[in-house]
Amino acid sequence: MSSRTAAALPGPPAAARRNAGRRPGRTVLWHVGVVVIVLVVIYPVIWMLGTSFKPATEIVTSNRPWPLHWTLQNFPDGWHANPGVTFGRFFLNSLFISVLAVVGTLLSCSFAAYAFSRLEFRGRSVLFAGMVVTILLPYHVLIVPQYAIFKQFGWINTDLPIVAPKFLATEAFFIFLMVQFMRGIPREIDEAARIDGCGPYRTFLYILLPLTRPALITSAIFSFIWTWNDFFTQLVYLNDTDRFTVPIGLSLFVDQTGATSYGPMMAMSILALLPVFLFFLAFQRLLVDGATSSGLKG
Amino acid sequence: MSSTARLDKRASASPTPATREHRTNRKQGFADRTAGYVFLLPWLAGIAIFTIGPLVYSLYLSFTNYDLLQSPKWVGFANYHQMFTADPRFMHSVRVTLIYVVVVTPVKLALALGVAMLLNRKRRGIGVYRSLFYLPSLLGTSVAVALVWRSLFSQGGAVSDGLASLGLPKTDFINDPSWALPAIILLACWQFGAPMVIFLAGLKQIPSELYDAVDVDGANKWERFRHITLPMLSPVIFFNVLLETINSFQAFTPAFVISGGTGGPADSTLFYTLYLYQKGFTDFQFGYASAMAWVLLAAVAVLTALMFRVSRVWVFYGDGGNR
């Protein structure tokens, strides 16, 4: 909607009041104001990007967010910052865990969501309430006993404590998101499938699952990003350097104090956030809408 | 918990197939019922193995001394007793966490609501702005951003130097016991985008006729906000308050990364979760850490129940108010 034409048209009083906010001057002022706030908010990201391309000397001497002399040296320096293991290993480890987490979450949570939103069985509402409570349950309450249990299993220092729970729908938030979405799908569709002879299993596989695609994509991206960014679980369970993931690899930079290590540190931070940025660019609408609807309908 | 009752009611409010099953044959109804458990099986197994089992186990461990090597030794209420009477670091971590929660929740939500109201109009580029404001919420919990914060706010960092150029004294925020926590609080508030998009969607659902009605009465901007926006938005505000409060109790990564795992300087960033981690995974006092976990669980449960109780007074579930 063009603000200029709206303001230029002479209109009745009611329209004039509505257009009061759309005079060109005010619109420009509004845009300037919002852009200033955006810049303040995005500044840390800009700083991170700029610093990753700055030579070490410049990081100490200047605080311009953008480098005077561009350099790529920080990237190989950061990549090889830890003796004996490169960030390549960390990235592969993170990727492996995150992809498995996505697969596990999508499978198990879509099963549970189908049961909660479409199937009738004894105790459904009590179980649903229990599921919602687990969304609010602080994870730190479970970490100590889980660690003790996984130690009995011999799972410490493997990916299993991080990945296995995802295959059993422990990320209840995604069940909730999918339930909300499935409830929006007209029941007449699966009624029709049923009349055509589809049982609950085939109805799920051929009717409901394809229709739930948008919620599945949103869940997949969030699940990937959360596992990719997750630090706590990986810190607790992974001990060997060659099992380390990107967040743990990054946290090793904390030991190297002083502004000289900022360049390599920020270079690796940028790489670490690259998948998140890419998902954000490609699916921003879906992500923001997903964050909105799952929240609002709660 | 009353939260569950409310959500539960809405869950079963949707038309259940029970009435329709009369039309289909009985066999199908049976298939449905067993299918329900079959589809729920992974989740049921998950909640038993990874949630309820550990919860019960940690309740038991909280009454023991356990270092993972020898079997747990029963000590009764000793862990709880020590926590509240003989562990100043515990009480300190409670204080740090409470300050954090009490400051972050209102400030972050005020920012979120303010920006949401600024964006709640039909203008070009709203979608882009909305996404850009949301970006920090996507990045915020990562180690990478915590490192950025550590760099920005430490000696010679951009913030310190920027303030110095304005004539203010140079501060090494990260290593100053009175400034480290505020820096972490700022990091949390920076992620106001997530509640903001929820506010924005809530604002869009307020019927414009309501504003037209008070405009006729000659209401000013504040009165519009006070008498229309706030009550109509109250269910969304409540949802955000609940979520942000519970999330704030669980903050860990920023404090861990910024303090290098110590909770320093001078324990000024010793968050509850960080102290729990230290007790469990540095000192291997699993019994004590379990007791801490249960205190956290009890605190969050009581607080949630309390918030639901208080919400009856101020949350307005009018027509379309909570859709």
Write out key terms for the chains shown.
heterodimer; A: 298 residues; mainly alpha; MetI-like fold; 2 domains; 16 helices; disordered N terminus; B: 323 residues; two-stranded antiparallel ribbon; 2 strands; globular
**Structure class of chain B:** mainly alpha
Number of helices of chain A: 16
Number of strand elements of chain A: 0
Q: Which sequence of SSEs, written as H and E, runs from N to C of chain A?
A: HHHHHHHHHHHHHHHH
Main β-sheet description of chain A? none
CATH class of the largest domain in chain B: Mainly Alpha
Strand order of the largest sheet of chain B: 1-2
The portion of residues assigned to helices of chain A is: over 70%
> What is the rounded Rg of chain A?
25 Å
CATH superfamily of the largest domain in chain B: MetI-like
Residue runs with pLDDT of under 50 for 5 or more positions of chain B: 1-24
Task: Enumerate how many helices of chain B there are, as a single number.
Answer: 15
How many runs of DSSP E, i.e. beta strands of chain B? 2
Distance between the termini of chain B: 22 Å
The helix content of chain B is: over 70%
Sheet/helix structural class of chain A: mainly alpha
Percent of residues in β-strands of chain B = under 5%
Count of structural domains of chain A: 2
Model description:
The complex is a heterodimer of chains A (298) and B (323). Chain A folds into two domains: 3-78, no CATH class; 87-296, Orthogonal Bundle (MetI-like fold), CATH 1.10.3720.10. Helix content of chain A is 72%, strand content 0%. Chain A has 16 helices and no strands. Chain B has helices at residues 2-13, 18-21, 26-61, 78-85, 88-119, 126-139, 143-153, 158-165, 180-190, 193-204, 208-216, 221-249, 253-258, 272-282, 286-314; strands spanning 64-65, 73-74. Chain B has a two-stranded antiparallel sheet with strand order 1-2. In chain B, strand 1 and strand 2 form a beta hairpin. Chain B is globular, with a radius of gyration of 25 Å. Mean pLDDT of chain B is 87; it is low at 1-24. Chain B: Pfam families: BPD_transp_1. Chain B: It is found in: Cell membrane.
